[in-house]
Amino acid sequence: MFSRFIANFKAEDVTTHDTDVVVIGTGIAGMYTALKISEYANVIILCKKGLTESNTNRAQGGIAAAIAEGDSPDLHREDTMMAGAGLNDLAAVEVLVNEGPDLVNDLIRLGTQFDTEHDAEGEHLALTREGAHSRRRILHANGDATGAEIVRALAVQVRQNPRIEVIEDAFALDLITSEHGSCKGVLYQKDKALHYIRSQATVLATGGAGNMYRYTSNPGVTTADGFAMAYRAGAKLQDLEFIQFHPTTLNYPGAPRFLISEALRGEGAVLRNIAGERFMPAYHELAELAPRDIVARAIVSEIEKTKATFIYLDITHQPDELIKSRFPTIYEFCLQYGLDLTTDWIPVAPAAHYVMGGVKTDLYGETNVRRLFACGEVSCTGVHGANRLASNSLSEAIVFGKRIAERIEAFLQTETGEFILLPKTEKVMKSPIEKIDNRRLHLQKVMVRHVGVKRTRDSLERALSELGKYVPMLSHTYNKKSDWEFINLLTAAILTTQAALLREESRGGHFRNDFPKAKDSWLKHTIFQKDVGVIEERC
Fold it and tell me: Does residue 292 carry a catalytic annotation?
């Protein structure tokens, strides 16, 4: 069903470039990993758009690290495991919570300016609390623009680094592998020309798959490219059924689905239904600070009960100055649409935000495809389990980015690797009769309606039936970006839906109305591998 390549090409028409390591993608995962690798090797970073266009750039809440007095890695581990609902890899979580604090200091060394505050003991890093955290351990920058500040600082370092070459506006098409299955680089398109970067190691840092859904907090570049190209190359994909829907994105006529950070609830904001009633205490003892999956389902339930399309987020009881200084980006954005955080309840609804699953890796970011690594949201390290703890994503990226750099350095010192020539593609290119944009919109609507916050066997089977209309497209190659993105989204959507149909229980970011309870028999991972099929692996 799945073609090995999505691009139609002839080897003689492709320009070849050599480097030590290629990093596909930017954001905190791509840039931080590239900087660490550049300490001993030459690196090329491929950017789908610009160097700073990524999910990281939109991250508002912050980065989690147990650095405060009264906090500890043990407490951070407990919170992470609780949110992950039994599917976390304990060893991966231990790595995250113990190595994260030092690497946050490394971000500061690299120029990131986190917010500080003053008290009787002097100046120290300002910390906030988010859902399912038992302590205030979230570092933030410029109030609610943490990701943008991290991206700014890392981009300065990357552009000044003589061992890093940045190639922008480059669409990564497919991973190139040897006959023995080792990854030997990536095929990409830039300015309508095809290029092959031949490398000793390849790092996927392509972000998530939010654009599988009609409503998402993600930027337009997150079209499941890394998931799909890894799958076509034989990598294992794990836990794709676990999609995190952020509970609060702006839902207002004429406005995009702008993220309204969980940090507002950390600073006391409450959720109200269309009748103005606060409802979260009836759903969970942590109320608005319950894990994201619980809050998202509660919001959907209230929307269904009241036949509304949104609920309200209310922080008007907090001082105006706190709201404006702590959340300047959100305040100014809402104001553009006539909504004032200090006086108005903000209409919000859940939207696709983060994929807990992804390309399966070990504790050093390496996949089952030798010399192929994955970092950030595209990866599945096991840290997040069935539901990611808020602000653990940025921490995961730097912790495992550093480990990837260590692993690559070790084998570059002991192995040279054999460069290979490009293979030949033999599939005939076919262009769909229907406009690809219409197909993409249909796919996104199918995923929202049938593979959303709440699922059933009937809805998932209906989704597979609808998506099945496009399955013949998977066996062909194409030559347009819009087609490539659609094939990648379709690949991820089919695998996500199949995984959700297989898991007959509810856990974390996966909820089945027909199987509303978690089951011990499902303490296992669902893994997909091309030409192998479905693999189940016990926790």
Answer: yes
